[in-house]
Each structure stands twice: as C-alpha cells, then as structure tokens.
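Researcher: Next entry in the queue.
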Amino acid sequence: MSFGHLIREIGRGAQGARDMNFDEARQLYGAMLDGGVPELELGAIVMALRMKGESVAEMSGFLAATHDRMYTLRRPAGRFLPVVIPSYNGARKGANLVPLLAMLLKRFGIPVLIHGLIEGFGRVTTAQVLREFGMAPCVSLSQAQQQLDENGLVYVPLSVISPGLSDQLSLRSRLGLRNSAHSLVKMLDPFRGESLLLGAATHPEYLDMMREVYCSHGVHALLFRASEGEAFANPRKRPRIEHLRDGACEILFEAEHESIKVLPHLPEACDAKTTADWTRSVLAGEFTLPSPIANQVACCLYATGYADDFNQAKAIVAVEGSGLSSLP
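Model: Structure for this entry, 328 residues:
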C-alpha cells in the first residue's frame, strides 16, 4: 500500500477528499494496528481522516480490521447473553452510573463486561468507581475470563483485548485531537456476536454512523444518546433507545423531551467515593432507582433473553425496582 498516494487522496479536506472503500480501509487500518505505518505517515493519515470525516464504509473497514486482531472471550455459560459496556469518557459534571447499571444487570444474573481506560485525565472513570467496591481491572485475558465466569462482572482495560487500538487511542496525547479509534472502541465485541453491546454517542451524526455500521456488521446492540459520552441513560431525561439486531432496528423507548417531573435523588458530587456510596444506597433500596436507568435495565433484560418480550421485561423491572435490596 502506497501511504503517500493514499494521503493525497484522503488529505484534500472535507470537499476534495476521496473516501476509501471497505477493502482499502480494512487494509490501511490493519497496517496501523500492526505498527506497519511510519510515524510521519501515521500522523498525516490520522489528521486527514479527522479533517475529512470517516465514511460508513471506512468505519466498517476499520472495525473489521480491529476485530481481526482483537483478543476474544468465551461467552459465560447460561441462557442470557452477556452485556458489553464500553467506558472511555468518564464523568465531569454528573455521576458516572455505568457501575450502577452493571451491578443491576449482574443481580439479574446477566454477565457484564466493561472495557475502557483506567486514567480519566481529570474525569471520574468507571474503573475508579469500581475500585471503591474493591474491584480491580483485569491484567490479562485469562484473568478476565475467570472473573467473568466466576463473578459475572469484569472490567478489562482496552490494552488487554486490543493493544493496537489502545496505541491508536493514545495518539490523542501527542496530536491533541481524537481519532477514529475513539469511535471504534464503542463498537467492539469481545464475544464475536454472542453478546449485547451498549452503543452510545453524544452527537446525532455519530449515532447515525454507528447505526449504519452496526447494521452492516449485524451487530446486536442497544443504541442511544450517551451521558457525557458514557453508555448509561441520562437519569434526568431518558434518551431514545433503539434495539438493533440482524440489521433491523426496533425503537424500545422514545426520548423524553422534558426532564422527568420528580427528579431522582442523585449524588451531590461526582467523585468516585461519593458515586460509589450513592450506588450502594440505591442497591440497598435506600434511594429510588432513576426511572431512565430502570427503563434501560428493562431494555437489557429483553435484548439479552432474560424476558420473553419487552412488556414482560418492563413489568419485571417495575416490580423489582421498588425492592432492589431483595434481588439476589
């Protein structure tokens, strides 16, 4: 592959650049993940894609190359699909409720794998909140598999499942801008199709792109607007939640356009300890579970096969939501 020729094609800005096709994108990103692109050319390619914007075909090719090289995990025994939660943004204004969502799903017996970054660069990460519960990130694939099988909940750093993509993500500290890897991490499935992926993005155009890529790859996912970039429903105003499976899209909940009338009791600060203490209170039934999170749990119960249909899933959460402390 001629990197110079490729840079000329994609580096002419948003108006003059040519998009790569799927095969070109797959070949290029494979070389990037393998460390086969010299630093100068790598920087030029990353910046050209940032200026041009990635097409659906390009992101599909990038994702295929990433999955070709990603380490995988075995789906835990049981009839419920595991839930995969990407967590790469962290909290800055509100509490990070990814750990709460994960622990609720675990109580229903649904395996949960969270992957992400440990360092939050000033934000409160999921790993930092989980540390308050005595849960440390896994340092190897075998440890992740064992903990998932035995405990049903695991946090895996990106470097464990995709070292090459982790390297691409780290380019932000050198170049000062996000790159394609920041979108790709939200599309990873370490179970190779035997899971439910929680896909979330902040900007509508990214949601549209993710929907097309998911459908083209046959990804099984819930797609919704993120909370500060994290994959949990805004506890004050539920987003639209779509269920994508086998290329088809089903709307499970429409977005709430106004904040809920009775605001839930939320943490007064977003630091890890305060968030963990509040999460414990919700799990103990001392505070009411915010209804948008309850709605999201119902979507997960339905999509993972816990409930036979969506109405049953909503009914289960409605009954159990007032007595969380009595769940297993």
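Model: DSSP finds 16 helices and seven strands in the chain.
Researcher: Noted, moving on.
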